[in-house]
Amino acid sequence: MAKCELNNVGSIVLDHRHPAKNETAGGGHFRLWNSRSVSSFRRIIIDAVSCGGTSRHRCHQRHNNDDVVSSAPSTASLSSGEKQPVQEERSEKLSDLLNATECETEGEAKKKEEALTEMKRVVKELLGEDFLKQRMAAASVRLLTKEGSEARGTFAMLGAIPPLVGMLDLEDVHSQIASLYALLNLGIGNDANKAAIVKVGAVHKMLKLIESPDVADSSVSEAIVANFLGLSALDSNKPIIGSSGAIPFLVRTLQNLYDNKSSSQVKQDALRALYNLSIFQTNISFVLETELVSFLIKAIGDMEASERILSILSNLVSTPEGRKAISGVRDAIPILVDVLNWTDSPECQEKASYILMIMAHKAYGDKQAMIEAGIVSSLLELTLLGTTLAQKRASRILECLRIDKGKQVSGRYGKNLGATVSAPIYGGGKEYLEEEEDMMSEEKKAVKQLVQQSLQNNMMKIVKRANFRQEFVPSEHFTSLTSSSTSKSLPF
Asked: How far apart are CA 421 and CA 418, in angstroms?
């Protein structure tokens, strides 16, 4: 069988002829490679295109003379017996390809039809009155929607959401759990379903289910927490869930989980749900009505949940009420400052520095508490080793503390200067200089003490990180190291 070769279109050659003696220099130096006819030329073009841009057989032969290219046999010279198998083979391949595509399309259509029939059957059982069939149908919905995004939309269009929400009124715990997880999977990645679930009253039914004295199964609470997490991800659901009483339930659940040391997954779900709800500022007032702030401050040392806790506090600190609630918790500022010392998580450092930055800009008392907690050394370290965002926030806190310190000093000097000017000139000069020297010495003592405290804290951190005991460096050695320090090491 003739073969297709690449670049055989080059067999259509223009033959460069040297001008004959009886021809003029300007007269036709080029002609087509052969005068065999235009049909031969057209046949080669057709064969080349039909073979995917190449000819089906060798189309030229070179003679000894490089300047003369002989013509190749055209496809017209092939016998009909050689041409027929090629066409038949092509036809068979094309037919097989079309048949395979048709079979695949028919197979997919058949599968979709069977899946739709199954989903219609499941919804019909959900709408029935047989409790056992309803529970099995809810389990089927949970299974079919676990990884199928298309199935979630189809079930919603078939009307599966209202009967599933209605199953929450049943007294059977297994039916309740099956319904809750079916609703959870229906809402995954589908905002329309999340809105529909809340619209038909699922949130109030879930809370009513929890408040019922007959329900003592912790699995029901875990399923409801997971549903609140999924539903609260939609912005339009946040105010509805926040005002429904879900926040106190989530706070109580979180406290019980910490007391009983229960599943960490449920703990994370509750924290994430509270974070979603606290994004909406109207819900912050509902959060502050609970004991969540004090609980979070005390639980901030939990390594697994510290980032989530700081995220919630970052939302709360954005309002004056939230800042007041955080400041009102005992040792809240020292605990937040200490986060910068023990955590190596960039996210925790960024969130803790954000909370401290907002509070340093808004309240004078918080600034004093930060300085007393040794925040200066922590911020200096953060400006050197933290992420870009943490460095910026640490620098802003240091600037805020420096400006506040300058205002205190200028206020004290201005007060004393005003008293001195009102006195007689000849009698107050020496006394004023002595008072100024005493005041300067007090300032220097305070600054020197702050410098020593900062350096000692840094030395203790270095020793601690090197896994040495704290007694490895005696306190006298600390004193000798810091006695010669100056105020240049401070940012203000």
From this structure: 5
Say what the pLDDT of residue 207 is: 94
Distance CA 248, CA 254 (A): 10
* Percentage above 70 pLDDT, the chain: 59
pTM of the model: 0.65
- Give the CA angle between residues 51, 52, 58 to the nearest 5°: 50
- pLDDT tens readout for residues 436-461: 445 445 555 555 565 566 666 666 66
Nearest alpha carbon to residue 492 among 381, 336, 371: 371
- What is d(CA 178, CA 166) in angstroms, rounded to the nearest whole number? 12
Beta bridge partners of 31: 15
AA identity, residue 488: K
Nearest to 149 by CA among 109, 120, 192: 192
Question: What is the dihedral sign for C-alpha 384, 385, 389, 390?
Answer: negative
Beta-carbon contacts of 190 under 8 Å, excluding residues fewer than 6 positions away, are: 149, 152, 153, 156
- Match 């039914």 to its residue by tokens: 205
> What tokens appear for 339 in the block?
């986060």
Between these two residues, 119 and 13, which has the higher pLDDT value?
Answer: 119
- The amino acid occupying position 287 is V
Task: Work out whether strand 60-62 and strand 69-71 pair parallel, antiparallel, or are unpaired.
Answer: antiparallel
Residue pair 340/353 in contact by the 8 Å Cβ criterion: yes
* Mean residue pLDDT across the chain: 75
Q: Could you tell me which residues come within 8 angstroms of residue 351 by beta carbon, excluding any fewer than 6 positions away?
A: 307, 310, 311, 313, 314
3-state secondary structure string across the chain: CCCCECCHHHHCCEEECCCCCCCCCCCCCEEECCCCCHHHHHHHHHHHHHCCCCECCCCEEECCCCCCEEECCCHHHCCHHHHHHHHHHHHHHHHHHHHHHHHHHHHHHHHHHHHHHHHHHHHHHHCCCCHHHHHHHHHHHHHHCCCCHHHHHHHHHHCCHHHHHHHHHCCCHHHHHHHHHHHHHHHCCCHHHHHHHHHCCHHHHHHHHHHCCCCCCHHHHHHHHHHHHHHCCCHHHHHHHHCCCHHHHHHHHHHHHHHHCCCHHHHHHHHHHHHHHHHCHHHHHHHHCCCHHHHHHHHHHCCCCHHHHHHHHHHHCCCHHHHHHHHHCCCHHHHHHHHHHHCCCHHHHHHHHHHHHHHHHHCHHHHHHHHHCCHHHHHHHHHHHCCHHHHHHHHHHHHHHHHHHHHHHHHHHHHHHHHHHCCCHHHHHHHHHHHHHHHHHHHHHHHHHHHHHHHHHHHHHHHHHCCCCHHHCCHHHHHHHHCCCCHHHCCC
Amino acid 322 reads G
Distance of CA 54 to the CA centre of its chain: 52
